[in-house]
Amino acid sequence: MLALERKNLILAKLQEEKSVVVSELSQLFDVSEETIRRDLDKLEREGFATKSYGGAVINDTIGIDLPFNIRKNQNVAGKQKMAEIAASLVNDGDHVFLDASTTAVFVARALKEKERLTVVTNSVEILLELSDVTGWRIISTGGIVREGYLAFVGPQAEDAIRSYYVDKAIFSCKSLDLERGLMESKDSIASVKETMMACSRRNILVVDSTKFDQTAFSVWGDLKNVDTVVTDLRPDEAWLRRFEETGSSCLFPE
Which of 70, 75, 121, 191 is the most buried (most CB within 10 A)? Predict the structure, then answer.
């Protein structure tokens, strides 16, 4: 097993169990405890974990993003339900933006039953997901690949998005705050999403319930510019009132 693969598996275990023990990881991966300690040192330097006596605990700071391949395995059932709702809002023949969120990958899968779609995306993962679909146009924004996100960002990606005006933009966010709106931990990721929202007739935010009442570094979107919010659980009354104030409809599984 490669060191990077082992480190990502340790991170996934940390995310699931909130803490890990050196001796247990040593047995699990059949490597020395010193090797595991070096893995935990790297995770601590990268901000994902805090070393403790005999192991480590997860760092739950909202500004830290887990690698894409870890995030896409979180709340899979909820993402599938949200994706089905979001896909129901798309018509055959639509032109659609999909962002580089893990949630948008599930939406892309749910859209495969549609016909004649044009999808513009800055997601490497979505490009691969839709590479075998026939009868569609799949357009990549190009740009700079953001490490850990499988996303194209930067001026090239944003210029490509501005050259289109689509029927629907479907995107997620890192955090959703009642007053500040949509937030991300990285400016470059936020800027691409903001550009998508400005170049679409209808904006659809697909965001799971764990993102509500959270904050992150970069404020990039106002709920007044979101037409529909799709989530996995019924929001509380404060959020439903906020959506009513901003004119955003809210859809969730019954």
Answer: 121
14-49: pLDDT as tens digits: 777 878 899 988 888 889 989 988 888 888 887 788
Query: Can you say how many angstroms the Cα of residue 21 is from the centroid of all Cα atoms in its chain?
Result: 29
Distance CA 221, CA 84 (A): 24
Contact status, residue 107 vs residue 170, Cβ threshold 8 Å: yes
Digit-coded pLDDT (tens) for 233-249: 999 999 999 999 999 99
- pTM equals 0.79
The residue type at 7: K
Q: Are 60 and 214 in contact (CB under 8 A)?
A: no
In the block, residue with structure tokens 């146009």: 137
**What domains lie within the chain, and their CATH numbers?**
3-60 (1.10.10.10), 69-251 (3.40.50.1360)
Between CA 236 and CA 162 the distance in angstroms is: 35
* Residues 143-150: contacts with CB under 8 Å, at least 24 apart: 144/188, 146/100, 146/186, 146/188, 146/189, 148/65, 148/67, 148/68, 149/65, 149/68, 149/100, 149/186, 149/189, 150/68, 150/100, 150/123, 150/124, 150/125
Per-residue confidence at 8, pLDDT binned at 50, 70, 90? confident
Run of H or E residues at 106: helix 102-110
